């Protein structure tokens, strides 16, 4: 299966991130490229910083970010 970056695809850019088993399957599955992964992580960091500066509880946001970071790393591990 071909892994394509949803963000790149939406922007009309080259979107192939990698492949995963079964390799003879021509279908696409979605992931995220390194560039967009870093952009998402940076936005989350800024949002967590803003929330902590404004006194908003960040416990839930921090837990969600940790889980999101794990999901984003899956794509990184699948790259050829």
* Helix amount: 55-70%
Number of helices: 3
- Number of distinct beta strands: 3
Domain count: the total is 1
Question: What is the H/E string?
Answer: EHEEHH
Rg on CA atoms, Å: 15 Å
Q: Assign an overall shape.
A: elongated
Gap from first CA to last CA? 13 Å
Q: Describe the largest sheet.
A: 3 strands, mixed
What topology, given as strand order, has the largest sheet? Answer: 2-1-3
Strand content: 15-25%
Mean pLDDT: 78
| Uncertain parts | none
What class do helices, strands and sheet pairing give?
Answer: alpha+beta
Please give a quick description of this structure.
Helix content is 57%, strand content 15%. The chain has helices at 6-11, 34-53, 59-78; strands spanning 2-5, 16-19, 28-31.
Description of the structure:
Helices cover 57% and strands 15% of the residues. The radius of gyration is 15 Å and the shape is elongated. The protein is α+β, with helices and mostly antiparallel strands and 80 residues long. α2 packs antiparallel against α3. It has a 3-stranded mixed sheet with strand order 2-1-3. It has one domain. The protein starts with a strand and ends with a helix.
SSE arrangement:
Elements: E1 2-5, H1 6-11, E2 16-19, E3 28-31, H2 34-53, H3 59-78
Parallel strand pairs: 1-3
Antiparallel strand pairs: 1-2
Helix pairs in contact: 2-3
Describe this protein with a few key phrases.
three-stranded mixed beta sheet, about 60% helix
């Amino acid at each position: 299966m071909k892994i394509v970056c949803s963000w790149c695809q939406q922007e009309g850019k080259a979107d192939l991130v990698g492949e995963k088993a079964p390799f003879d399957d021509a279908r696409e599955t979605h992931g995220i490229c390194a560039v967009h992964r870093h952009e998402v992580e940076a936005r989350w960091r800024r949002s967590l910083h803003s929330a902590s500066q404004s006194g908003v509880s960040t416990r839930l946001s921090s837990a969600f970010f940790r889980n999101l970071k794990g999901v984003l790393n899956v794509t990184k591990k699948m790259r050829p």
